[in-house]
Specification:
The chain has 294 residues and is mainly α. It contains ten helices and no strands. Helix 2 packs antiparallel against helix 3 and helix 5 runs antiparallel to helix 6.
């Protein structure tokens, strides 16, 4: 019997099973929970959204290649740390590795798609790549992908520009000019250093402000995308449910039409039988009335 502790296993079954069977199986499990008296579980099951094609394939990729996905997650942690420390050399190396690992996982996703007998279109490829980028950019997204229960593709909280950006390199030190013999004409370097430091500080301030604004834009667009994907998933599920209802009603209508034709034939036959009976009854009454009375 279903109980509240079964929601995780139910979700695991739905998101790892065939995508085309998701809605029907979900509704079946929700109905079983409702019949068992657990309306809360039934409602929570109904809230599980049918995954988009890219999300479903990302879930299958996470299930088939957890080790490779774990390596990408670890690289993401290192890359985020390098950005926090403004370690430009580490950022360049890790960014190169990030690109290699994402390409490798995209290749594995294509293998999974072939094994599942589905097509991996350009749109699906982009959405899976976005999901992998999100796993690099944020720990929460990495955990969601690893759980294998995505209903829509993910988008990085940070833009690619931030992920790929190298920290400002220190300006190369200028080689000091030989001092002139006359001490009274010697230039003091302090104002120059102060000016360079001020310019670097201002450049860093602008870079941080641009990054903050980019992060806010990325979050807003990610929220809009997630909302649109959620609405699409819900509409797809509703359309699928309505399609099945229409199919059932059409089947029932065809049966009723057939039944109606059979009843009409029976009515016609009954009318004929009634007319014959009336004729026979009239003839019997006339024969009876013609007999001499006793």
């Amino acid at each position: 019997m279903l109980n509240a502790m079964d929601l995780d296993s139910i979700a695991a079954e739905l998101y790892s099973g065939p995508r085309e069977e998701f809605t029907g199986r979900r509704n079946e499990l929700a109905a079983r929970a409702r019949k068992a008296g657990d309306r809360d579980l039934a409602a929570r099951i109904k809230e599980l959204r049918k995954p988009t094609s890219s999300a479903w394939l990302a879930n299958r990729l996470a299930a088939a290649h957890p080790d490779e996905l774990g390596e990408l997650t670890e690289l993401g942690e290192s890359l985020r740390q390098a950005h926090r420390e403004l370690a430009s050399d580490d950022i360049r190396e890790l960014s190169h590795r990030r690109r290699e690992q994402i390409n490798q996982l995209l290749g594995l996703a294509r293998e999974v798609a072939r094994a599942e007998g589905v097509s991996m279109s350009e749109t699906i490829t982009r959405e899976i790549e976005s999901t992998l980028e999100a796993a690099v950019a944020g720990e929460e997204a990495a955990e969601q992908l690893a759980a294998g229960r995505l209903s829509a593709a993910l988008t990085p909280d940070m833009t690619d520009m931030w992920l790929m950006a190298a920290s400002p390199s220190a300006a190369p030190a200028r080689q000091a000019k030989p001092e002139k013999p006359k001490a009274e004409k010697k230039k003091k370097p302090e104002p120059v250093r102060d000016e360079l430091a001020a310019k670097r500080a201002e450049a860093e301030r602008r870079r941080r402000e641009e990054r903050r604004q980019a992060e806010e834009r990325a979050k807003r667009t990610a929220a809009d995308r997630d909302a649109a994907a959620q609405e699409l998933s819900e509409l797809e599920s509703e359309a699928e449910d309505l399609g099945k209802r229409v199919e059932n009603l059409e089947t029932e209508l065809a049966k009723l039409k057939q039944k109606h034709r059979e009843v009409r034939k029976a009515v016609a036959a009954a009318e004929k039988t009634l007319e014959k009976a009336k004729g026979a009854a009239g003839a019997a009454e006339r024969a009876l009335s013609s007999l001499p009375g006793q």
